[in-house]
Write a structure and sequence with these properties.
The complex is a heterotrimer of chains A (about 325), B (about 325) and C (about 350).
Chain A lengths: L1 H27 L5 H6 L5 H11 L5 H14 L13 H36 L5 H14 L2 H15 L19 H35 L2 H9 L3 H32 L1 H6 L5 H10 L3 H29 L1 H4 L2
Helix pairs in contact in A: 1-13, 5-6, 5-8, 5-10, 5-12, 6-8, 7-8, 8-10, 9-10, 10-12, 10-13, 12-13
Chain B lengths: L2 E5 L19 E4 L4 E5 L6 H8 L8 E5 L2 E2 L5 H10 E4 L13 H11 L5 H14 L16 H13 L5 E5 L7 H18 L2 E6 L2 H7 L2 E6 L2 E7 H6 L4 H9 L41 H5 L5 E2 L5 E2 L17 H7 L1
Parallel strand pairs in B: 3-8, 3-9, 6-7, 7-8
Antiparallel strand pairs in B: 1-2, 1-4, 4-5, 9-10, 10-12, 11-12
Chain C lengths: L12 E14 L2 E14 L3 E5 L6 H9 L7 E9 L2 E2 L5 H4 L7 E4 L13 H12 L4 H14 L5 H4 L9 H12 L6 E5 L7 H18 L2 E6 L2 H7 L2 E6 L2 E7 H4 L6 H8 L48 E2 L7 E2 L8 H9 L1
Parallel strand pairs in C: 3-8, 3-9, 6-7, 7-8
Antiparallel strand pairs in C: 1-2, 1-4, 4-5, 9-10, 10-12, 11-12
Helix pairs in contact in C: 3-4, 3-6, 4-6, 6-7
Classes of the chains: A mainly alpha (about 325), B alpha/beta (about 325), C alpha/beta (about 350).
Chain lengths: ~325, ~325, ~350
C-alpha cells in the first residue's frame, strides 16, 4: 500500500517536472512567439496584443503555466495555437485508441515470437537451428521500420493486391467496434512492428536462457531427474523472465507514448506518434504539452507495472 | 614499532532502521613481530575488523593507534605514509588482481604511487620481490590469468611487501587454496616473517590454520572478541564455550591422536547482527547459559597475564595454561 | 591396466565402476579429466573420494549422472548401478535413476536451488517427478522431510524461498530433497566446503544419522582429510584423474602408502606443527595438456625413480589386501618412509 502511494507520488512528480521542462523550453526558445503563431503571418501589433491578452500570454510564466494546466486537466478545453478551435483533449482521445490497438496487438505477436524464438534457439544451441535463428533475429532487428512498412505496402496494396493480397483492406484505421475489420486493417502494421521487437526479444532471451542453463540450480534439476523440457520452461525460463519483463515495460511504455511513429505514418494510422509529430512540426505548444504528458504517463505507468511484476517474478526483490 | 589498536566500530549500513553491528566494540593489541590470529565464522565481522584496522573501512567509533600515533582521524594524505607500513593481503587470488595488468605492473604500482625510486630501481625491486615470494622474475610480463591460485596469492603477497611494511593484515589468505598449495603459502608467510621481521594480523575461519601460524589468537562472535589467548593456551584449554565448540567441531584425522574433547554441537545458526541477542550474544546457542547470560553483557576480563575472556562462566580451571592461580576461586567467592 | 579396486568386504556392490574415462576434446588436444577410474560402492557403505581441485573427483560423479553439459566431453567405461549400465543411457532413461535411485547434493547450497520457487515447492517437484502422488500428500511429505533434517518450524519454512535460509539451512533443505525418494545412493559433492565448522559438524552428523536410518550408500567427495576421516568407511585418493590409493579409512588415511597421500596429510596444519615449516608437495598439479608419462605424480614426487616412467598398477603392496596403491616404491619400505615424512 505504502509502496503504491510512493510510486504514484513519484509518477506525479516526474510528470510535473517534464511538463515544466517542456513549457520552459518552449517559451525560453528565442524567436518563438506564440502570439505570432496564433495570430497568423503579418498580423498588426494591435491584433498581437489582443491575442496575447485573450490567451493570457502577457501574464508571468508561472501564471501562464498554471493556466495551461488548468485548461488541460481541469477544464479540459485547452485549444491548439495553430488550428484555432481544435481542442487538445479530444485530439488525444481520438489518437490514443489507434496507437493502443497497434501496440497491444503487436506486443502479443512479438512476445510470442521473442519467447518462442529465444527458447528454440536456446534449446537447439549447438545445432544449425541456433545460428539460423540468430541470423533471422539480426535481420529483423536491422531492417528499418519505414522501409519494411513501405515494402509491405508495396506488395499488399500494389504489386500483389489484385492477386494474393486481394483481401487486404486499404490503409487506415477502423474502430474496434467492428472487430473483424479492425483486426484486418491492423494485421500488417502489427506484423511489421512485431518483427522488429520480436527479433530483439529472441536475442535477449536466448542469451539469458543460455546463462541460466549453466547455473548450479539447473544441475540440481538434472540431478533430480527432471526432463530437459521442464528444466527449460519451469526453471530456466522462469528465472530469465525478469529481464524480458523490464525490457517489455520500457518498450511498451514508449511505443504507446508515441514511439511507433514510423509505423503509424507508413500505414496511415492517425495515432499518438503522428499527432506528436505534427504538433512538433507546427510548434503547437498545447498539443505538444498534451502529447508529452500523455507519453510520460505511459512510460511512468509501465515502469511501475514492471516494478510490481518484478517483485512477483523474483521473490528476492520482494523483501529488499 | 607497535600497532596498538584500541578499536570500537559501528558499521551501520542503513536500510530502514536496521543497524548492522558488524564489529561491535573490539579492543586488541598487536605486538611487534608477533602473529595475531583472528578467527570466527562467516559474518562474525573479522574481515570488517581487518579493513577497519587499515582504514579501508572507516570505523564509526573507537581509536586505532599504529606505531605510537593515532591514525583514526588522519586525512587521506596524512594516511599515505602510514599505508606504506601497513599492508593487506586478500582472500581471493582470482579477483583481487586486475586481470588486464601485467604482474610486474601490479607489484610496481604501490612503488609508483608512493614515488619510491626511479624506473630502474622499481624494476629491480619487482624482480627481487618476485624471487622473494618464490616466483621466476622472468614472469613479470605475464598476466594474472596465466598463474595458478597459489601463484596468484604469491603475487598478492609480493605486492603487499613492495613498500616494506611492518604490519601485514592477511584476510583469509589461504582459504581459497588447495591443502598442498595452502601449506606452501603458509610456509612462505612464516619465512617472510622471520626474514623481514614482519608483524601479522592473520584473519581466517579455519582454526587449524590460525592455530598453526599464530602466537596469540582472538576469537570473534557476532562482531565481538569473546576470547584472546596464546595459541597453545587457547587450544589446550579454551575458556569460552564458543571457542570450545569451534575446536570440538574440527574433524580429526583418522589414525591420529587428538586431544580428548567433549563434543559440543551448537544448536541453530548464528543470529543476524541486526538484532543481536541481549546479554551475552552467544547465550541462545550456549550449552551452559544461565539467567545472568541472558541479561548481562559480559566484558573481556583477564584470566591471567596473557589471556582474556568475555564469559560469565569461563570453562577453565586453576592450573590451566595461562590462568592466574587463585583467580577463579577469588571470583567465585566475591 | 588399472586393477579393480576390490574391497574384500563388499558382498554385492550397489555401484560398480570400471575404467571410467572422461575426455574433453579441446582445440589444443584431448584432455583426460578422469583416466581409468575403477571402484565400487557396497550397499550401506560410505565411500569417500578425496583429492585437490582438478583431480577429477567431481567430474567422475558428473559423468555417471549425465551432468556434463559440455558437448566436447566423451565418457567411456562402465558404471553399473545394480543391474543397469549408466554410461550411455539416454537422458530419459537416466531420469528414472537420477533423483529417485541416485540423489546428489552439491557444494554451494546458495546457488543449488532455483531462487524463484519455495523450498517446499522444489521438494514436491522432486517427489512428483518420480512418484504418482497428489500435491497435498507430496507437500506433507516435504514438510516431514524438512522436519527430519532439523529445520525448525518446518511447515512454515517450507513456504520460504532459498534466499531466506542460511547456508546451513539450505544444505539441510538440499539433503531433505535428496532423501525425498529414498535413494539407494547419495552422492555428496563437497557438501560442507562452503559452510562454517560448526555448521559442517551439524551437516556431517546429519548425513551420518540419515545414512543409518535410510540405509543408503553415500559417496562423499571432499578435499578435506578431516571430513573424510569423520564420515567415510572406505577412501579413494585421487590425483590428476586417477585413483592413487584405495582402502579402508583407517588404512588409507591412518596408514597411507602413496607419496601423494603423505603429501596431502603432511600439508595439513595441526597442533603439533605449530610454528614449524609444513611439509609440502613441491610444484604444481600437472598441466592437463601435458600429463607426464607413466606415474602422473612423478614430477612432484621426492622418491621418483626410473621405473616411474611406467604407469604403476593399482595393487595391494602390503599385507592388507584391500589397501591398494599405485606406486613403484617397494611395499616393505612404505611404513618407514611414511613415518619419516609425516613425523
Amino acid at each position: 500500500m505504502g509502496f503504491a502511494l510512493k510510486r504514484l507520488a513519484s509518477a506525479v512528480l516526474v510528470m510535473f517536472a517534464i511538463s515544466v521542462m517542456v513549457f520552459l523550453i518552449f517559451f525560453a526558445t528565442p524567436g518563438v512567439d506564440p502570439a505570432a503563431r496564433i495570430a497568423g503571418r503579418g498580423a498588426s501589433p494591435e491584433v498581437l496584443a489582443q491575442v496575447r491578452q485573450t490567451f493570457g500570454l502577457d501574464r508571468p510564466l508561472p501564471a501562464r503555466y498554471a493556466l495551461m494546466m488548468d485548461h488541460l486537466f481541469i477544464k479540459r478545453d485547452l485549444t491548439s495555437y495553430v488550428n484555432i478551435g481544435d481542442r487538445v483533449v479530444p485530439q488525444l482521445s481520438h489518437a490514443a485508441p489507434v496507437t493502443l490497438s497497434l501496440v497491444l496487438g503487436a506486443a502479443v505477436i512479438w512476445l510470442v515470437i521473442g519467447v518462442g524464438g529465444g527458447v528454440l534457439a536456446a534449446m537447439y544451441r549447438g545445432t544449425l537451428v541456433d545460428p539460423l535463428m540468430t541470423l533471422a533475429g539480426i535481420a529483423a532487428v536491422s531492417v528499418p521500420a519505414y522501409w519494411l512498412g513501405a515494402m509491405v505496402n508495396l506488395l499488399t496494396q500494389d504489386k500483389l493486391h489484385t492477386g494474393l493480397f486481394s483481401w487486404v483492406p486499404p490503409l487506415g484505421y477502423v474502430s474496434i467496434t467492428h472487430p473483424g475489420s479492425w483486426a484486418l486493417h491492423l494485421l500488417f502494421p502489427w506484423l511489421t512492428l512485431a518483427l522488429l521487437y520480436g527479433g530483439i526479444y529472441a536475442r535477449v532471451l536466448r542469451a539469458e536462457l543460455i546463462s541460466a542453463l549453466s547455473e548450479d540450480y539447473v544441475r540440481t534439476c538434472r540431478a533430480k531427474g527432471l526432463s530437459e523440457r521442464r528444466i527449460l520452461w519451469r526453471h530456466a525460463l522462469r528465472c530469465s523472465l525478469s529481464s524480458v519483463v523490464s525490457l517489455f515495460g520500457l518498450d511498451f511504455g514508449s511505443l504507446v507514448g508515441g514511439a511507433a511513429l514510423l509505423t503509424e505514418v507508413v500505414f496511415g494510422l492517425p495515432g499518438i506518434g503522428k499527432l506528436t509529430w505534427d504538433s512538433l512540426q507546427n510548434l503547437d505548444l498545447p498539443v505538444i504539452m498534451g502529447c508529452v504528458l500523455y507519453a510520460a504517463f505511459f512510460v511512468v505507468a509501465a515502469n511501475a507495472v514492471v516494478d510490481v511484476l518484478y517483485s512477483i517474478l523474483d521473490p528476492r526483490v520482494r523483501h529488499a | 614499532m607497535r600497532a596498538e589498536g584500541v578499536a570500537k566500530q559501528f558499521a551501520g549500513r542503513g536500510r530502514g532502521k536496521n543497524v548492522v553491528r558488524a564489529v561491535d566494540g573490539v579492543s586488541l593489541e598487536v605486538r611487534s613481530g608477533e602473529t595475531l590470529g583472528i578467527v570466527g565464522e562467516s559474518g562474525c565481522g573479522k574481515s570488517t575488523l581487518g579493513q577497519c584496522l587499515t582504514r579501508l573501512v572507516e570505523p564509526t567509533e573507537g581509536r586505532i593507534e599504529f606505531e605510537g600515533a593515532d591514525i583514526t582521524r588522519l586525512s587521506r594524505r596524512r594516511l599515505r605514509p602510514v599505508r606504506q607500513r601497513l599492508q593487506m593481503i586478500f582472500q581471493d587470488p582470482y579477483s583481487s588482481l586486475n586481470p588486464r595488468v601485467r604482474v610486474g605492473e601490479i607489484i610496481a604500482e604501490p612503488l609508483r604511487i608512493h614515488r619510491v625510486g626511479d624506473r630502474a630501481t622499481i624494476r629491480r625491486r619487482v624482480s627481487d620481490l618476485l624471487e622473494r615470494v618464490g616466483l621466476d622474475p622472468g614472469l613479470a610480463g605475464r598476466y594474472p590469468h596465466e598463474f595458478s591460485g597459489g601463484q596468484r596469492q604469491r603475487i598478492g603477497i609480493a605486492r603487499a611487501l613492495a613498500l616494506s611494511p611492518s604490519l601485514v593484515i592477511a584476510d583469509e589468505p589461504v582459504s581459497a587454496l588447495d591443502v598442498s598449495v595452502q601449506a606452501q603459502v603458509l610456509n612462505l608467510l612464516a619465512e617472510l616473517q622471520a626474514d623481514l621481521g614482519l608483524t601479522y594480523v592473520f584473519i581466517a575461519h579455519d582454526l587449524g590454520v590460525v592455530e598453526h601460524v599464530s602466537d596469540r589468537v582472538a576469537v570473534m562472535y557476532l562482531g565481538e572478541v569473546v576470547e584472546i589467548a596464546g595459541a597453545d593456551e587457547l587450544y589446550t584449554a579454551p575458556a569460552h564455550p564458543y571457542t570450545e565448540a569451534l575446536l570440538s567441531a574440527i574433524p580429526g584425522i583418522a589414525g591420529e591422536e587428538v586431544q580428548a574433547r567433549e563434543r559440543i554441537v551448537l544448536r541453530g545458526d548464528v543470529p543476524s547482527p541486526i538484532d543481536k541477542p541481549t546479554g551475552c550474544a552467544f547465550h541462545p546457542r550456549c550449552p551452559i547459559a544461565t539467567d545472568v547470560c541472558r541479561t548481562e553483557h559480559p566484558v573481556l576480563v583477564p584470566l591471567g597475564p596473557t589471556r582474556q575472556v568475555a564469559c560469565h562462566h569461563p570453562r577453565v580451571r586453576d592450573g590451566d595454561p595461562g590462568v592466574r592461580p587463585g583467580l577463579l576461586d577469588a571470583e567465585r567467592r566475591g | 591396466m588399472p586393477e579393480a579396486a576390490t574391497s574384500p568386504t563388499a558382498e554385492r556392490a550397489l555401484l560398480e565402476v570400471r575404467d571410467l574415462r572422461v575426455t574433453f576434446h579441446t582445440r589444443r588436444g584431448a584432455v583426460e579429466a578422469v583416466n581409468g577410474l575403477s571402484f565400487e560402492v557396497a550397499s550401506g557403505e560410505v565411500l569417500g573420494i578425496v583429492g585437490e581441485s582438478g583431480s577429477g573427483k567431481s567430474m567422475a560423479m558428473y559423468s555417471m549422472m549425465g551432468l556434463i553439459a559440455d558437448p566436447n566431453a566423451e565418457v567411456t567405461g562402465s558404471a553399473r548401478f545394480e543391474s543397469t549400465e549408466l554410461i550411455g543411457l539416454r537422458p530419459k532413461e537416466l531420469n528414472r535413476f537420477r533423483g529417485s535411485q541416485i540423489a546428489m547434493i552439491f557444494q554451494d547450497p546458495m546457488t543449488a536451488l532455483t531462487p524463484v520457487y519455495t523450498v517446499g515447492w522444489q521438494i514436491v517437484e522432486m517427489i512428483r517427478a518420480h512418484e504418482q502422488v497428489g500435491r497435498r500428500a507430496a507437500w506433507d511429505r516435504a514438510v516431514e522431510l524438512l522436519q527430519e533434517v532439523g529445520i525448525p518450524d518446518a511447515a512454515r519454512r517450507a513456504r520460504s524461498y532459498p534466499h531466506e535460509f542460511s547456508g546451513g539451512m539450505r544444505q539441510r533443505a538440499m539433503i531433505a530433497m535428496s532423501l525425498a525418494c529414498n535413494p539407494r545412493l547419495l552422492i555428496a559433492d563437497e557438501p560442507t566446503t562452503a559452510l562454517d565448522v560448526t555448521t559442517q559438524r551439524q551437516i556431517l552428523d546429519l548425513i551420518r544419522r540419515l545414512q543409518g536410518s535410510y540405509g543408503s550408500s553415500v559417496i562423499m567427495i571432499t578435499h578435506d582429510m578431516g571430513v573424510i576421516s569423520d564420515i567415510a568407511d572406505r577412501v579413494i585418493v585421487m590425483y590428476a584423474g586417477r585413483a592413487v590409493e584405495v582402502g579402508e579409512k583407517q588404512a588409507t588415511v591412518g596408514a597411507a602408502r602413496h607419496p601423494y597421500t603423505w603429501g596431502l596429510l603432511g600439508a595439513i596444519p595441526r597442533p603439533h606443527t605449530r610454528k614449524t615449516v609444513l611439509p609440502t608437495i613441491p610444484g604444481l598439479t600437472p598441466n592437463p595438456h601435458a600429463m607426464p608419462s607413466g606415474c602422473v605424480f612423478r614430477t612432484r614426487c621426492a622418491w621418483a625413480m626410473d621405473e616411474c616412467t611406467q604407469t604403476p598398477p593399482l595393487l595391494a603392496t602390503g599385507s592388507d589386501l584391500g589397501h591398494l596403491d599405485a606406486c613403484w616404491l617397494p611395499g616393505e619400505e612404505r611404513d618407514e618412509l611414511r613415518k619419516a615424512t609425516l613425523r
